[in-house]
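hey can u check if this looks right to u? its 508 residues, i copy pasted from the old doc so theres a chance i mangled smth
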Amino acid sequence: MDKKLFALLSGCLLSGIAEAGQTKPNVIIIYTDDHGTLDANCFGAPDLCTPNIDALATYGVRFTQFYAAPVSSASRACLLTGQYAKRTGLTGNAGWTGLRPEKETIAERMKANGYQTACIGKWHLGSWKEYRPTAQGFDYFWGFLGGCIDSYSHFFYWGGPNMHDLWRNDEEIYDPGKFFAAETMKEVRGYIKNREKDKPFFLYWAVNIPHYPLQPSEKWLEYYSKLPNPRRMYAAFVSTFDDYLGELCRFLTSQGLDENTVIIFQSDNGHSTEVRTFGGGGYCGDYRGGKFSLFEGGIRVPAIVSWPGHFPEGETRDQVAMNIDWFPTIVELCGLNTDGLEIDGKSLVPLIKGGVLESPHDVLHFDFEKQWAVRYKGELVWFSICSMGNPHVTIITDDIESAPVGELGPFIENHPAFPRRVNVGFIQPITEHEANVRVWERGAGETLACGTGNCAAAATSIELGVLSSPILTHNRGGDLRLAWEGEGEDVELFGPAVTVFDSEIEIP
């Protein structure tokens, strides 16, 4: 039989069976940790050996403009709830508390629809009992609750207290000396083997690679011996994960599950540049930023979905999508009940199958600490908000002349988030101490120069490390000099007072 015809017929058959409620696909979400934007061979990394990630893309669909939150907990909250980080109540990293218990997770939705559910690996959505996986829809949990652990001792070592963090469900367990990633693979295999065979399963495999501490296998350290550190250690850790991914795929095939299992793979955020990673190691190409940043390098992540025989193979989707979209995608694929569903994501099924060419999103929102960003009509717009006695949004741009001042200015000025409207400034860094500025003033439109707008743009850029004081700004109405020494200090503005126009008003 012709391969394409067979695939079509099998897809139609599966659809009919799913509608009849006789069978549903298994779903595995694989979530890597601090995995850089382009850090797989199939995404463009020139120096990585990732044959199993590449194979997943070969037999699936690869996304080139896929987004997540810039930090671990916020990203995981978005994934599991299908909501923007702001709506989950978790825009940063969790501690003892985390994802609010009243939020519905994809695990809860799937469990209510007859799925067995398991979380294996990293949680990082709250450590107190009411915040743990077993309270958020997962039948089974094995892994750690916090942000990171040493892979062999299973202790958290940073800033104290140094705490042991390894759990099976709600019971702390001890297994010193055993490599964590290898143990997660054992748990994954065991869970799948021992499941109830007449029920589909949902597995969230949250891998702690390549998050620090960088503890790759010796064979990959030897393979990358000519790379400089920290890239060598980071690359070796990515390839260590790739080995386990290959092991999982071979195991699924051996169990006869490969053609009835949807595999979703992505990173939680961009690569880390923290001291604990020796300043970096990840790769985001020409993109700016990394973890903790709302620039592309912090929120654009590698993503692949595969379902052999049912999804296209070896295809790429360049449309914009986000991890909030996996929830509704899974709901559609698995035929789950949609009653009471409160999500921001959109199903990617039409996009994956190729029948729809447009992104399901006109706008995406990102929120982290003092940074905000929107993906608006195909462009990532990064901004911050501050007050200079009046409210200002500051947008950092790479080209002040082409910046959409006349379009984004009134759009943001009149957005419902700003009931009294807001000024919108655009700043283009030239050097560490020099920038171009344009300002859209509320109620007036673009002006030749705005004193408070320049102050807001300069202070925001200094605080976020984009510029350093003092700063020379170039406006269409002339140049200004600004200085700011940090929080608690005044912003100083220097420049000429120039007459722009004269007019007379008759008063009756």
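Residues 69 and 286 are 20 Å apart (CA to CA).
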